Amino acid sequence: MDMTELKPAKDLAATRVSRFENESPDYAKARMALLAEEIEVRRHLTRLAEQRRRLPLGPAIEKNYRFQDENGSDVGLIDLFGSHDTLLTYFWMFGPQRERPCPMCTNFLGGANGNGADIKQRVAFKILGRSPVERQRAFAIERGWRDLDFVQTVGDEYARNLGLLDDKGHEYPGLTVYQKIDQQVHVFYNGEMPPQAADPGQDPRGAVDIAPLWNILDLTPAGRGTDWYPKLNY
C-alpha cells in the first residue's frame, strides 16, 4: 500500500454522515474521532498483511512428522497439502487426557467451520489434534461442524517441537501456515506472540486476534470482559 496516495484519516472521517436524527453533538464528535482511528487501524492491518507476505523464505521442515488422516492413512506433512501449495493448520487442545476439548479452541473452530468450505478453495486447511480422528470427528458432529478436516498427530514430537505440549502434559493452541516449494515444506508463518507480551489486564493474544468472538464483543459497551470465557454447554 502506497502511503503517499492515502488521504488523511481525519479528512475521510469528516465525511461521516449520521444515520440517526437525534445524535448529540458530543456523540458525533467522539464518533468522528473514533472513525479516524478505525481508518488508521484498517490501514495498519493492511500493512501488517503486506509485511507478512514479504517474509523471506521460512525454515524448511526436515523432520518426518507423521499424521493419521480421516481415512486412517499414515501421511506426512507434505501430504496434507493435497493439490494446494499452502497449508493452514490449527492445533487444538483436545489431547487424549482431556475429557472435553478447550472451550476457546472450540469457539474458534465453530467460526472456522463456517468459512471452511470457502477457505479450502484457496488453501489446504487441517485441524490437528493429539486425539484419534474418530474422537475429534465425534465432537465435530456434536457441534454440527461439517467443513473441517481433522488429523491426528502421531506421537508427540510435532506438538513438543512447536511448543504446543510441555513436559507436564499441558497443551497450547497453535496456528501455523506452511508453503510447499519444489516438494519441500517450509514454514511461512507461525503464531509466536509470547504470553509475556500480554499487556496489563489482558489475556495473551496475538495480532490480529483470530477469535471472532472477541472481535465482536469488542464492539459492545462491556467489551470482552476480564473473567468471562465461552463454555461448551450453557
Any overview of this molecule?
With 234 residues, the protein is of the alpha/beta class. It is 31% helix and 16% strand. The protein folds into two domains: 1-17 and 24-54; 66-190, 3-Layer(aba) Sandwich (Glutaredoxin). It has six helices and seven strands; from the N terminus they run ααβββαβαβαββα. Strands 2-1-5-4-3-6-7 form a seven-stranded mixed β-sheet, covered by helices on one side. α4 (133-143) links the parallel β4 (124-129) and β5.
Task: Please outline what is shown here.
The chain is of the alpha/beta class and 234 residues long.
List keywords for this structure.
234 residues; alpha/beta; Glutaredoxin; 2 domains; 7-stranded mixed β-sheet; 7 strands; 16% strand; globular
H and E string:
HHEEEHEHEHEEH
CATH homologous superfamily designation of the largest domain: Glutaredoxin
Low-pLDDT stretches: none
Q: From the helix content, strand content and strand pairing, which structural class follows?
A: alpha/beta
Q: Helical region count?
A: 6
How much helix, percentage-wise, in residues? 25-40%
